[in-house]
Specification:
The protein has four helices and no strands. It is an all-alpha fold. The longest helix is centred in the N-terminal third of the chain and has 27 residues. The radius of gyration is 15 Å and the shape is elongated.
Length: 97
């Protein structure tokens, strides 16, 4: 944990953990709804969560539930959000130094 907190403020790290947990739960709910044919979580919501730091939870959920792994357009946009988030994180870290 020291390696992360040396570069990333603890409150930001906790925000990533919280958003990742929330994103994981939303992916799980969406997968459950998909199986039942119920109303689904919009893909834009999943991308929004990933963009603002929930992408680690999204990756875990995608692997565990095999959810959103076949749609190429979704995967491309997902990885764009991950890259954008990581770029913003590096910029913020550099800004605070």
């Amino acid at each position: 944990m020291t390696l992360f907190t040396e570069y990333i403020p603890m409150n930001l790290l906790l925000a990533y953990i919280g958003l990742s947990a929330l994103t994981f739960v939303i992916y799980a709910l969406d997968k459950s709804k998909a199986r039942r044919g119920a109303w689904r979580v919009p893909e834009s919501t999943l991308h929004f969560l990933a963009l603002f730091g929930g992408w680690p939870g999204a990756i875990l959920a995608q692997k565990m539930f095999r959810h959103k792994t076949q749609k190429r357009k979704f995967r491309v946009m997902f990885w764009i959000t991950v890259i954008a988030n990581c770029g913003a994180l590096v910029w913020l870290i550099d800004l605070t130094r």
